[in-house]
Amino acid sequence: MVLPVIAARLDGNFSGFRNNEATSGRAWHFINASTEDIEMIFDRTVLYRRISSVLCFTLFAVVVSENLAMAQDELVGARNWWSPTIEGTREHGKLSELVNKRKVYVTTSFTDSRTIPEPSPIRSGDVQRTVLDAFSLHKELQIVPVPSQADFAVVVRTTATTESGDRPPNFSFALDSSTAVDVEVLVVVPGSKRSDGTIRSRVVWESSSSNAQIEAGSAARFTVNGFLWEFSKLKDTVKDKAK
């Protein structure tokens, strides 16, 4: 192994030592190098390191970009089984189809269509947080980050609109009296294939309300809790039969 040059300023020259392990013991050989030689060595070393850093960063950026593109294509692609559209054709199944399923993909959304000047604040992040909190209490389920890893999906959609007609008042003081909160929860599994190769949504559980009378986050959690209660009851029934 050759150790780096140890430089010392002597009479305008750089002097150093090099370890030669080819001989027995530890033999040290004195070497001399001019200032220009040492500067060239260091300049080349710095240049090679910079080139290597740039190449590594470029390769990393390319890999990350490709992975992000694949994830976005998977999450927002059209006609996906985990994101049933209102006008699309849906298959209908039974909750019992989830008896042996564990991995779930959860997606939430909030649409604010209110027209009043200063509506009470409702954030989409609040809806997502309360829904994920509800799932965190059920250890028999594992939330996965992408639909391709999931056995089934839970789709939570909430909307806030301004309504002027007669309807029951809101229970929450945080909501304006004219605000109506709509909530829809769909539990879907992959259905049959279409002719173009995409997979239909198969709804095994659903619940909705056009006037929840509470905030969007609370309405979403309340509805999701209804599904989780029925899911746990299904699991318990299967366990009792297995005894």
Describe the secondary structure blueprint for this structure.
Elements: E1 8-10, E2 13-20, E3 27-33, H1 35-76, E4 90-92, E5 103-113, H2 124-136, E6 142-143, E7 152-162, E8 179-193, E9 199-209, H3 216-242
Parallel strand pairs: 4-9, 5-6, 5-7
Antiparallel strand pairs: 1-2, 2-3, 7-8, 8-9
Shape: globular
Strand content: 25-35%
Largest sheet: 6 strands, mixed
Average the pLDDT over all residues and give the rounded result: 78
Task: Characterise the protein shown here.
The protein is of the alpha/beta class. It folds into 2 domains: 8-73; 90-242, Double Stranded RNA Binding Domain. Helix content is 34%, strand content 29%. The protein is built from 3 helices and 9 strands, in the order E-E-E-H-E-E-H-E-E-E-E-H. The chain has helices at residues 35-76, 124-136, 216-242; strands at residues 8-10, 13-20, 27-33, 90-92, 103-113, 142-143, 152-162, 179-193, 199-209. A 6-stranded mixed β-sheet has the order 4-9-8-7-5-6, covered by helices on one side. A hairpin with a 2-residue loop joins strand 1 (8-10) and strand 2 (13-20). Helix 2 packs parallel to helix 3 (216-242). The longest helix is centred in the first third of the chain and has 42 residues, at 35-76. The radius of gyration is 32 Å and the shape is globular. The model is unreliable at 1-31 and 60-77 (pLDDT under 50).
